[in-house]
Amino acid sequence: MAEQQVQPLHNEKHANIKIQNGINVEFMKTQHLVPVVAHEFARVANEFPMSFVKNNEAGTFQAVAMFGLEPGENLFVEGDKWTASFAPMASTRYPLGLVKHPEQDQFGIVIDEASPLVSETDGNALFENGEETDYLKRRKESLVSFIEFSQVTDAFTKFLADKELLIAQTLTVDIKGEKKDINGIYLIDEKKLNELSDADFLELRKRGYLAPIYSFLTSTHQVARLARLKANQA
Q1: Which of 21, 89, 103, 148 is the most buried (most CB within 10 A)?
Q2: Short name of one Pfam family for this protein (predicted)?
């Protein structure tokens, strides 16, 4: 797989660059977990199971969509095609990204020049006469939204962790009659959720957290779908 060549986006250096919309399938085919933001939980839940993974060093949790049942496996990539009808924001913002300025509270835009979605011939122009195109402006807005959504999701996840609503879970799936355990993931503890005090439950509602919680809980039914896909591909 080609190495990434991430460079700051510049109106002169990248004057003739065009970007195709799409997903970097080459990169995605080895990703079994991809970060998701609370704002897309409802859509994610229609396609993929979600879980939380723990960063043991920092003690923090991150919400992820599960595309496979083991590391390096993505059951939604066939050949060079993405087969699901939806892809999370984290995977559609590529080949552009935002990088925080080390000294200032500002973000700069970067581009992976080695991406198969980047060329001088196909796709949407980023600059015209040195000015940003409407396409680039839209892409920038969605990158900024993703940062904002990520911050909201971090606060949501921290709230769940603080209220001890996240529980380490082993998921057992059935693949062609063989049982397989998936470890190292955290789910929302439905029993504890139902035992919350009225004040805590009201707090969840006020913060707008109930909808993503219920989407997350619904999504776990999609684990069976992953097992079916894995059985079919085997």
Answers
A1: 89
A2: SapC
- Annotate 69-136 with DSSP letters as a single string: SSTT--TTEETTEE-SS---HHHHSTTEEEEE-SSSS-EEEEEETT-TTEESSSSEESEETTEEPHHH
pTM (2 d.p.)? 0.86
126: left (phi over 0), alpha (psi -120 to 50) or beta: alpha
Tokens in use for 74? Answer: 């993505």
Could you give the CA distance from residue 115 to residue 91 in angstroms, rounded to a whole number?
13
CB of 226 closer than 8 Å to CB of 69: yes
**Shortest CA distance to 153 belongs to which of 45, 52, 31, 49?**
52
Sign of the CA dihedral with 154 first, then 158, 159, and 164 last: positive
Residue from 67, 58, 79, 77 nearest 33 by CA: 67
In tens, the pLDDT along 150-168 reads 999 999 999 999 999 999 9
Cβ-in-10-Å burial (0-12, 13-18, 19+) of 136 comes to buried
